[in-house]
Every structure is written in C-alpha cells, then in structure tokens.
Specification:
It holds the Pfam family PDDEXK_2. This is Rpn family recombination-promoting nuclease/putative transposase. The chain contains 8 helices and 8 strands. By secondary structure, the protein is an alpha/beta fold. The chain has a 6-stranded mixed beta sheet with strand order 3-4-5-6-8-7, sandwiched between helices. Strand 5, helix 3 and strand 6 form a beta-alpha-beta unit. Helix 6 runs antiparallel to helix 7 (272-279). The longest helix has 38 residues, at 230-267. It starts with 7 loop residues before the first strand and ends with a helix.
Length: 289
C-alpha cells in the first residue's frame, strides 16, 4: 500500500492502482446503476435528482444500451419504467455519454422514446403520453453554460408568460466537473451522491461522513476492484483501453485541425503570436509547418 494515499502500487511500473472502478466508464456506470439487484441505489439517486417532483418506489429496466466502438462509441442509456409513490407510471431515461452533440443526442433519444409509445397501440389511441424525464450525467461541461450552475432543469415553457407549457417532458443535465464541494461542504443527499460519483475512482476508502449509510457503502462495495470477477475485470480493462484509444485518436484529429488552421493563417501572413493564440500551437511548431 502507498503510505500517502493508501492505494495499491503496481510493483513493476511503481504507479498507484485505483482501489475503486471509474463510475463514468461504461462498465462502471452499468455495474453500479444498471443491474436489477442494485435498483435501490438508482432509485435513491434519481429521487434526489428529481427533488420531489416525483418519488420513485420501484423501477423496471426496459433497456440497457451500449452502442458501437467507433467515433460515437461512448454511450450508455438506462431506459427505466418507474412507479411513483402515488401509483403513477412514468419513464426516466438516464444517460452517460461523451460530449459530441450531446444536446442533439438527448433530444433524439427522448423523441425515439416518445415515438415508441405509439407503436402497436389501438387505432383509436388518444395520444395520452406518460411523463418522460431525461437525466444526463455529464463528465464534461457545456461550452455555453453559466459557470456557476452545474444542474440544469430544462422544461417546455411559454417564452412570454414563463409558464410551463407541457409538464410531461423535462431534461436534467448535471455538469459533474463543476461540482467541486469538499466532504465537509456537503449539504444534501444529492451532494453526497455527486461527491461519490466525482471522487470514487480517486478514493482509497469510503469517507467517514458516509460510513453508516448502507446505500453508499453498497456503492463502494460494488466498485471495489477486489470484488470484481475475472470476467468483470477483463470487461472493465477492455473498456478503459477503448476509451484511451479513442481519446488518443481524437487528440490526433484535433492536432491536425490546429495545424491546418495555422497553415491557413500563415498563408495570409498572420503574426505568429496570433496564430499561436488561435491554435494553441507553439511558435516553434508554427515555424516548422
């Protein structure tokens, strides 16, 4: 064990090995939230996100979807049929995904979910829809969002009267990198859940303030590397490799785009310092093009 962090250390590479899996990985997200035996954890988390608009007492996993291995490979969808404490039925689509066109993707998924309601129904269907809540757990920030707000409650609203126009469709986006509260600053159960998600892979043990909460302790138990089967560990490592390869490929694409922009600016005799500020390339890199 490392004396400073308590993490295990790889004896060959001398690098710290995380004790807990990354909940933002496809495997980690599915392993913690995507299995029926763990549905009490998902119910607890979603109820905190919904902030009393609904109180879930039961869920059914309608679909767990993982798509592709190419440019759009990072996509995890939990399509949930929920029962509220008043017996009402509604749907929650919970998504963890990469930043590429995420707003468009969110609309696309809910549109598909809406369309599916009309498939196979009687000809005299009256178009009455269930409520649909979309929750986006984002391990990235929107480019155009307010720096002080990390939870976005999006609903259809009349722009003139500011009254809610349609209450059955809403979107909640949580920009996790903006959540920076320390353990001593947590004020609510939602804060505690977000703190766990943001810090799980970096922790060596469950924080003292969370000890005694059976749900949180279950998350840490599920996430502990030593509790994974050989097959689960292989799946997790393979997923991490795909993510690293994807990140490397995207970095190469961005580098080529920066070089192309620099060449265009050089062609019109732009100052090198301006090119550097615009593209992020160093003066030396620009001179070598």
């Amino acid at each position: 064990m490392s004396e400073e962090t308590g993490h295990n250390t790889d004896p060959v590479n001398k690098k710290e090995v995380a004790r807990f899996i990354d909940p933002y990985s496809d495997f980690g997200f599915k392993h913690i939230f995507g299995k029926t035996p763990n549905k009490n954890l998902l119910i607890s988390f979603i109820n905190q996100v919904l902030k009393g608009r609904k109180v879930i007492v039961d869920i059914q996993y309608n679909n767990i979807e993982f798509k592709g291995s190419g440019v759009d490979y990072r996509k995890t969808v939990l399509d949930l049929h929920c029962t509220g404490d008043k017996g009402e039925k509604f749907m929650v689509e919970m998504q963890k995904a990469k930043a590429i066109n995420f707003k468009d993707r969110s609309i696309f998924y809910t549109a598909n979910l809406i369309q599916e309601q009309g498939i196979g129904v009687a000809a005299n269907w009256d178009y009455k829809m269930p409520e649909i809540f979309f929750i986006g757990i984002m391990n990235f920030n929107f480019d155009d969002s307010h720096p002080d707000h990390f939870i976005h409650d999006i609903r259809l609203m009349d722009n003139n009267t500011h009254q809610e126009f349609y209450s059955k469709l809403s979107y909640t986006f949580i920009e996790m990198p903006k959540f920076k509260k320390l353990e001593t600053e947590l004020e609510s159960k939602l804060d505690e859940w977000l703190c766990i998600l943001n810090n799980l892979k970096k922790l060596s043990e469950i924080p003292l303030s969370l000890v005694g909460n059976t749900e949180y302790e279950k998350v840490f138990e599920l996430a502990e590397m030593g509790n994974l089967t050989r097959e689960e560990m292989c799946e997790y490592n393979q997923g991490l490799k795909i993510e690293r390869d994807y990140f490397s490929a995207m970095e190469n694409v961005r580098e080529e785009e920066r070089k192309e922009m620099a060449l265009k600016l050089k062609a019109v005799n732009a100052a090198f310092n301006l090119i550097s500020e615009t593209t992020g390339l160093t003066i030396e890199q620009i001179e070598s093009l």
